[in-house]
Write a structure and sequence with these properties.
Layout lengths: L16 H14 L13 H35 L2 H24 L11 H25 L4 H28 L7 H31 L6
């Protein structure tokens, strides 16, 4: 038996753990003629890669399930498929914008950054429920849609603004860390919460008025 140890440069910007492990496995079989049962690739890099691959897979499934549950919850609360779809849009926009920005900036998903989408969805759905319910109350009281939006903004919208800004600034504290994953986590979580705020106070009212939600 022969054991070969090597160190992986974990902080490299070009490191793709899964591809590296697959390349090593393929080279051992194709270039050295070893059978698959004649070698075993082990170590912390392999364990960490397996954990990340599991996180990636579960992230896709969990986000799909979460959006489905949110849609059903909106249906149960507001009893309207139109309102449920409208309420789901800010949540999808928030999660997709953050994950899309990570991809555009070529920032790899890891244990820290992969949790940002889940946090952003939780924040966005909370804002959406509060705003939708307040808007529904105003419409039920016979207020015109434009006035209902104005009243919703001056009541629950103000609370959403203060809460989102406070939490967003709080997460920005992580950006002063010396540990880069913590910096990314704090920065992108803060950005996700701010995106949720914009989607709730700008996009959601526009959708409610354009598609005449809660109109009898």
């Amino acid at each position: 038996q022969v054991r070969i140890s090597t160190r992986v440069y974990e902080t490299s910007n070009t490191l793709n753990r899964n591809q590296l492990i697959n390349n090593v496995s393929n080279d051992l079989q194709e270039k050295f003629g070893l059978a698959e049962d004649q070698f075993r690739i082990t170590g912390l890099a392999v364990l960490y890669n397996n954990m990340l691959q599991s996180l990636f897979d579960s992230q896709i499934k969990s986000l799909g399930i979460v959006f489905g549950v949110i849609l059903l919850m909106f249906l149960a609360i507001f009893r309207s498929i139109k309102v449920a779809v409208i309420g789901l849009i800010p949540n999808i926009l928030t999660a997709s914008s953050v994950l899309g920005l990570l991809g555009i900036l070529s920032i790899p998903l890891d244990i820290m950054t992969i949790t940002v989408a889940a946090i952003s969805v939780g924040m966005a759905v909370d804002n959406t429920i509060h705003y939708l319910y307040r808007y529904k109350v105003e419409i039920s009281n016979g207020v015109a849609p434009s006035d209902a939006i104005l009243k919703s903004h001056t009541t629950i919208g103000r609370a959403i603004l203060y809460t989102a800004l406070t939490i967003s600034i709080g997460f920005l504290i992580f950006s002063f860390s010396n540990f880069s994953p913590t910096v990314l986590f704090g920065t992108f979580t803060s950005l996700a919460i701010f995106t949720s705020l914009v989607a709730t106070l700008i996009l959601l009212p526009l959708l409610l008025q354009s598609f005449k939600a809660f109109d009898s």
